[in-house]
Amino acid sequence: MKQVNLKTICVLGLGHIGLPTALLLQNKEYSVVGVDVNEKTVNMINRGETPFTEPGLANLLKHKNITAKTKVENADVFIIAVPTPLNRSLNVADLKYVKSATDMIYPHLKRGNLVILESTVPPKTGENIVIPLLEKSGLKIGEFYFAHCPERAIPGRTIYEMINNDRVIGGFDKTSTDLAHKVYSSFVLGEIHLVDMKTAEFIKLIENTYRDVNIALANELAQIAEEFGIDVWEGIEIANKHPRVNIHSPGPGVGGHCVALDPWFLIENSTKGKIISMAREINDSMPNYVLELLKTIIDPLTEDSTITIFGVAYKGDQSDIRESPAIKLIEMAHNLGIKIRCYDPYVEDFQFELFCLDEAVKDSDCIVVIADHKCFKDISPQKLGKMMREKNLLDTRNILCHEKWKEAGFKVKCL
Ligand code: SAJ
Question: Which residue has its alpha carbon closest to ligand 1 atom 14?
């Protein structure tokens, strides 16, 4: 491998991926600076406070040896870990943060530097967008190095998965790939697979697309099973005993910053993708289906009705509300004039009012479980039933003990 200095690292974006990455790198031979445009985040990190919750993060921050800043500094390695939102009107990746991070780097780019893109991007973004922007430095690719190493860790287990999952690295050339491999092998225990740049971009996207399509299948099966009066959960559980079947779980829709977006990135420059776009439509329409189910439970569902939402996070045991299906459900219910009262013991900031448990169920006509928080299993239906106007439960995640709720006098419906 070419002898290149890899001592100082500048990580751009101190969010769910960038911050843990910076903290895992600092434990090794590197001197790490973290950069974020959000001054509040930077100040919190410098005080050793966690800007978001993630198991193991507080402990890493307690022993931190990184400095957070709002401006980029010269470094040997630059890692871009900024979000790639979806442009909702066009269903294409919005690369504004990737571009602005790249713009912050190129004035500091020196011969022999390595730039790594971790952000999820459509195939060929490295080649067509990021490298040309970096060349505004006056250097040509080959004089500096570039690799894509997509993050693949799941929120709630980010740090464990960052260390233990396999990684994929696709460099512009062999030197770029080898240098990026050296950086990641300092903390990754999983196998590191070396491919070309566009294949690395593709692999990341097909992982989340696989999940989205599989969830859409489960959601469609739930709707077919409803027509036949079949318990879809029992059906899927037993079908999955087959050694080559792995159907995912139905639910109120797909949230989060990845699975609900990445399938669009995969097909935005392609003429194909029918199954993929159909899966997106099925998953995006699940809140509409939940509302239809509610109309069969509360008849008529009117402006006098009050619905209690249990869990507004996009998935269980998380405070993350990004793209949560609860948001669409609440907005549609509000359009109909229905009163909504949300309860989520994990979430502090939400665009709709959050209530304590008692307030959320007071005079309610139905509880709808949206996020599968384990703590909901400990709630006593006896006590809640006394405070509600009607004892109805719609469990879109199949996480509660339905027998217990029925014994307490509830009418129970499961997705
Ligand atoms: N969901 C279902 N049914 C299921 C599984 C999930 O309805 O059977 C829903 C969840 O409730 C949630 C959404 O799908 O609303 C997505 O949740 P998730 O747990 O599938 O995934 P994320 O978005 O939290 O993280 C994914 C992970 N990708 C894969 O597992 C293939 C993670 O490894 C990626 O790093 C992450 O996307 C990312 O950043 O791309």
Answer: 254
Q: What is 8-204's CATH topology? A: Rossmann fold (3.40.50)
Residues known to be catalytic? 204, 258
Q: What is the mean pLDDT of residues 252-268?
A: 97
- C-alpha to C-alpha distance for 267 and 252, rounded to whole angstroms: 24
Distance 198 CA to ligand 1 centre (A): 23
* Smallest CA separation from ligand 1 atom 25, residue: 154
The whole-number average pLDDT for the span 382-400 is 96
| Third-level CATH fold of 239-259+272-414 | Rossmann fold (3.40.50)
Maximum CA extent, the chain = 73
> Do 239-259+272-414 and 8-204 have the same topology in CATH?
yes
- pLDDT band for position 64 (50/70/90)? confident
Going from the Cα of 279 to the center of ligand 1, the distance in angstroms, rounded, reads: 14
Q: Distance, CA 414 to ligand 1 centroid (Å)?
A: 21
Query: Which residues contact ligand 1 via a Cβ below 6 A?
Result: 120, 151-155, 207-208, 211, 215, 248-249, 251, 254-256, 258-259, 314-315
Nearest-atom number in ligand 1 for the CA of 371 is: 11
**Gap between the Cα atoms of 226 and 415, Å rounded:** 8
Tens of pLDDT, residue by residue over 98-140, are 999 999 999 999 999 999 999 999 999 999 999 999 999 999 9
Mean predicted confidence (pLDDT) in 235-264:
97
Average pLDDT of the chain to the nearest whole number: 96
pTM over 0.85: yes
* pLDDT for residue 28: 66
Residue ranges per structural domain of the chain: 8-204, 239-259+272-414
Q: By mean pLDDT, which of 58-62, 191-195, 215-219 is the weakest?
A: 58-62
Q: Which of 208, 223, 246 most suits a substitution to test ligand 1, by most atoms within 8 Å of the C-beta? A: 208
160, 258, 262, 282: residue to mutate for ligand 1 pocket, most atoms within 8 A of CB: 258
Query: What pLDDT digit, counting tens, does each position of 21-59 carry?
Result: 999 998 667 899 999 999 999 999 999 999 988 999 999
Helix, strand and coil content of the chain, in percent to the nearest 5, comes to 40, 15, 45
DSSP state of 300: S
Q: Report the separation in Å between the CA atom of 258 and the middle of ligand 1, taken as the mean of its atom positions.
A: 7
